[in-house]
Amino acid sequence: MNEQKLSKRLTCVANYIPKGSRIADIGSDHAYLPCFAVLNGQASFAVAGEVASGPFESAKEQVKHSQLTAQIDVRFGDGLSVIEAEDAIDTIVIAGMGGMLIRAILEANPEKLETVERLILQPNIGAWQIRDWAMGHHFKLVSETILREDNKIYEILVLEKTSERIAYNEKERLLGPFLLLEKNEVFQAKWLHEKENWARIVNGIQHGQETEQNTEKITELTEKIRLVEEVLR
């Protein structure tokens, strides 16, 4: 993978960047994504944010190597703190983190979202956290993709700012409203695996000590199993 050819996962993420956007790539790693987006005309300007010194230095080298220092600013900082008002960022990308961490990043600096029209988020786990966050923060899902790469399954969620009051039911929140409509092979494989894993956990708890916490966990997982079974039936 390099600035000319991204992984399958990041290519899908890049395809959701509107042409001519001003983007912030949070947790940019080697800055391959912003370099690719600028080189292909999808982004006119990019901030590549990194909180770890090694990837930060790698990103700076990559941007310099790609001769894009005038269009991509590599910044060291935590989450959305790297974004300045004068950047006029309209699209934020956060890929390759857990859903809980992505949610925490969005909640830590809500003022940084004022000019943002689109969020392109790729949680490795816990995508429901993002759907849950969206309901209370004037963003709505406009697209979702689920794909497999190197025996790992990834979900990509695209959200846009809205004045509507958005509400997702439990099934939509857990599984994704757009993914539920398609229910492709990767979707079915992911949730069959999750269902089997939850059943093993429930079985293990049932053979252990009976506590209030364990009873609550069994109830929670049993409901998730029921929802998934309904969908896969």
Automatic annotation (TrEMBL):
Pfam families: TrmK. One of its GO terms (molecular function) is tRNA (adenine(22)-N1)-methyltransferase activity. It comes from the Bacteria. This is SAM-dependent methyltransferase.
